Each structure stands twice: as C-alpha cells, then as structure tokens.
Amino acid sequence: MSHVLAAVAWPYANGPRHIGHVSGFGVPADVFSRYMRMAGHDVLMVSGTDEHGTPIQVQADSEGLTPRELADRYNRVIVEDLHGLGLSYDLFTRTTTGNHYQVVQDLFEGLYRNGYIIAKTTLGAISPSTGRTLPDRYIEGTCPICGYGSARGDQCDNCGNQLDPEQLINPKSRINGETPEFVETEHFFLDLPAVADALAAWLDTREGWRPNVLRFSRNLLDDLHPRAITRDLEWGVPIPLDGWRDRSDKRIYVWFDAVIGYLSASIEWARRTGDPSAWKKWWSADGEGKDAAAYYFMGKDNIVFHSVIWPAILLGYSGQGSRGGSPGDLGALNLPTEVVSSEFLTMEGRKFSSSRQVVIYVRDFLERYDADALRYFIAVAGPESQDTDFTWAEFLRRNNDELVAGWGNLVNRSISMAAKNFGAIPPAVDLTEADEALLAVARVGFGTVGGLIEKHKQKQAIGEAMRVVAEANKYLSDQAPWKLKDEADKPRMGTILHVALQVVSDANTLLTPFLPHSAQKVHELLGGTGTHAPMPAIEEVSDLDGGPAYPVLTGDYTVGARWESTPIEAGRALAAPKPVFRKLDPSIVDEELARLA
Ligand SMILES: [Zn+2]
C-alpha cells in the first residue's frame, strides 16, 4: 500500500459548473481515486472552490453583494453538484478559510526568506472613477501587433500574442468604458528563473506523462520570467510582511493562493481527523511522505500552473533553487508525480459559453438524467486525449445501446432468470470449457482494466470492462439457458446462470470506479449487503480558525469492494430485479437542442 494524493483542479466560484468542467478533471480524478482505493492504496483526494480574484469581486459588485456572499452562493452550488456526481473527495473545501490563509502566508514567507520572492516596481492600470486597480483582462483596446479592435490587456485573441495592458492602443475599461490611468506600483514576483534549473532537472526525471504535457512544460522553461504574485485588490489573502500585512489595497494574486489549496486542503483534512500532522504522509519529501505519489488532474489550459509554477513554489519553499535556502515551517514538500491534463469538451460543435447559452450545467443535467449516465459518457467518449464533442444524439446512443442494452441487459436477464427458476444463486456443477473461458476473461480484466486506469487511459479501461460485459452477453446467447426447461437439464441451467452471475459480479467491480451509483444497486440485486461503492456526504462544518461555517464534501472510503473477484455464494436469495439504468426516449434530443440558444 502506498500513499496517493489525488489533487483535483479547483473550480472557480463565480457560477455553476457545466459538464465540460467536470468531464475534464472531476470525474477522471474520481475514477482514478476510487480504483486506487479499491486496489489497496491510501488515497487522499482534495480540492475546493477557488474564491478570490477580480472576476468574483467584479461580479459581486454588479449584484450588490460582497465577494464573500457571492462565493458562499456558488461554493454551495458546486459542492452540491459534485456530490450529485458522487465524486469521492476526502475533503472538498474552499480558499476563504482561516486554514487556507495561514498555509498560503506560510508558503509566501518561506519563499521570501529563501529569496525566491522579489519586489519590483511595475505599471498598474487603475480606474479613475473608483481608484481601483483594473485587472489586465478587464482592459480592452486595439492590438498593437495585428490591429484587432477587441484585444484584452493580457492577450489578443486574434493573433494570440501575450500583451501588457499599457501596450493597447486606446485602452478602455470593460467594466465602465472609461480610459484607465497607468501608475507606478510595487508588487512581489515569484523569481521563476531562480528555480529554472531545478525545474528542468525535475522534469527530466518524469516518466509516463502524456507527451504533450511534458513537451509543453519543457518549452516553457526556455522563457521564464519573474511572475507577479500580488495585485492591487482588496479581495484576497493579505501579504504577510511587515508594512504590507495591514494594507487593504494589496493582496496575494488569486492563482498563487489557489494552487496552494492542494496543500492547505490536505492540512485542513488532517486537522479535521484529529491527527493534525497526518497530511505529511502525502506531502513530506524527506519524512513519512517520501514514498508517496501525487497526481494532479486538470484541463489543458491549466497545465502551466501544475507542471511549472506549483513545482517552482514547492522547490523554492523547500530551498532547492539556485539561491539555496532551507525548507519552511512545513518542511520540504513533494512535487507532483504526474500532471494529468485533459483536453476540452465542446457542445454540439461549439465551445461552451454561459453567456451564449451553449451550456449544460451539472445541476440541470442531474435533474433530468442519472449521474452514472453522464459518468459513462465521460469515460467512454470524454476529452481524455483530444478535444471531444458532446452531442445529445451520441449521449442517447451511448446510454441506450451500450449502458442499457449491454450492461443493463446482462444484469437484468441473468438475475431475472436465476430469480424466476431458482429464487437464489444456483450452484455450479461440472464447468465446461466455455464456462471456464468466460470466468477467465473476467478474472484477467482486473489486471487489464486496473493497469489502464493507473496509466490514465480510462477510455481504454472502460472499453475493456465493457468487453467483459459483451463476452458475457454472447455466452448467455450461445448457452441459451432458457431452453434448458426439463428437470434433468436444471443443473446445467443453474451452472450457466451461476457462471453468468459471477461474471456480472466481477464486471460490476470492474465498472465500480466509473459507475459507482449503479454498482451499489447491482451489488444489492445480487443479494449483497453493506456498502459496495462508498459515497461522499455534504457536511456543514465550522471554520477551524474562527471564520463562518461552510459546507464540505467528505466521506469514509475505507469501506466497499476490493479490486478483486469475489466468489458469489450459491443459495443467496435473489429477487426479480428492477432495471438499473433508464432507457431514454429519442425525443430528448430535440428537447435538449431546443434548450440551446
Ligand atoms: Zn493581435
């Protein structure tokens, strides 16, 4: 058994999440974590809502709320959505906790002491009417390179070049249209060039990463600059240095605090278990966590933060860059073992866009369809290694032809036939070659499917699990137990059904990481009791450091099925099953398309 950290990207709390978000990292991270736990590893799966930064401040202003009130609203919505999908977080928290503030400030101080945070004077844009800083992305103007009229202060979407806001021709605030003023302001920068060599040496030791992620990360090292980690903003974590701590107009930049969330959430989890140092088993690089593995799950637009910037923070904090230094108060910390990035999901051929209503929110989806129907689609047809289009027609086909007609049908017909003819799981006698062959296909599946999930090839993994299902359906058709009606044939009929039910049980275990809700149902239909697939729960907790209460997702995942074939017991009572999956009416396609603008 080893310690495995599953670090899942933090959703931004400025609105509800759509299915593109959860298909990129939430569901794949849960499949991985569930499998690793079933295989006997000690998994810690953490994340939370990312709640600082200008977009939340701007949106709160426009709704007449405080940023905290806006974040409270969407933190709860997101917690409920992830709960509905059955994502097995040990802790899904948020970045506005006292614990998070402390950990962020501790990392800032450690980096500063070691010399990896430097102060610089820069030009900042402010709004003349409010005196407030205008973040780069809220400034619009003409691109100085291609002449595109709607370039943003951080980049031009037409020519793709990175920009600084003062380069824009005729810059305007996107908030109120006024012309920003540029003033000198002091900020702190993470000195990325000072850890470039350490980063390169570390990247050279990485194995098994998706090649595009590794190539992209190595290329970034050729052109590293110090990166601002503070902003002129009131909403965020205060800067923990004398002369700065009490200033209300300067805050740590949202991206710097958000990546530290993986660590602060692990520490919060440990504090809540009553063993405040338990997090070290996953994090401590020179102590009890030195053999731990850390897997980070995110969309491809976030690779840089996980493969370069977060490792740079960890290296500098641990005193491992060109300026040397010694580890901060938390000790030397583990770098990512693997950065698992997904591609993008599009929607009926278009990019998801909340403003243009090209969107399906998780909540709306779960009101009309089952969580496992979406989890199945994401696993078999999600954006694992290339951009992928979600269409309602394909969702319908996958659900009806594969989930219902394949897996659901196997469960239903084998259990119904056994219940009707025996009322219980019949015994197996005199296994034939065909019986043995099918049982072997299922047994081999544990190695194949598990190995693929470990390599983050979930699409192939569920394909192998569904191949076991297809083989079992073919076996039933070939053996045709329904024809063995004579009393003399009954032992053979029982044997066939016993074999089929054993393979249903095995296939159910293989599918459990992907389809945990239905796996629990199938377990019960087979006469099983207790928890087969543990589920997360929403708990209202108080802030450990005195702040307001908030909801978290957590759970006990030490219970449930192991990653192995469990022999079914002959004689266990069976009842006629209820269908596990819902067949969808083809009319849903037109209904859903009509909902899109
Ligand atoms: Zn341009």
TrEMBL record:
Q: What Pfam families is this protein classified in? A: Anticodon_3, tRNA-synt_1g
* Compartments where found: Cytoplasm
Sequence motif: 'HIGH' region, positions: 11-21
Q: Which residues bind ATP?
A: 354
InterPro entries per record? Anticodon_Met, Met-tRNA_ligase_1, Met-tRNA_synth, Methionyl/Leucyl_tRNA_Synth, MetRS_core, MetRS_Zn, Rossmann-like_a/b/a_fold, tRNAsynth_Ia_anticodon-bd
Domain named Methionyl-tRNA synthetase anticodon-binding is located at: 425-550
Q: Which cofactor does it need?
A: Zn(2+)
- Per the annotation, the residue ranges of the short sequence motif 'KMSKS' region are 351-355
Name the chain's protein: Methionine--tRNA ligase
Q: Where along the chain is Zn(2+) bound?
A: 143, 146, 156, 159
Q: How is the cofactor bound?
A: Binds 1 zinc ion per subunit.
Q: Tell me what organism the protein belongs to.
A: Asanoa ishikariensis
Q: What does the protein in this record do? A: Is required not only for elongation of protein synthesis but also for the initiation of all mRNA translation through initiator tRNA(fMet) aminoacylation.
What is the top-level taxon of the source organism? Bacteria
Gene name on record?
Answer: metG
Transferase in keyword set = no
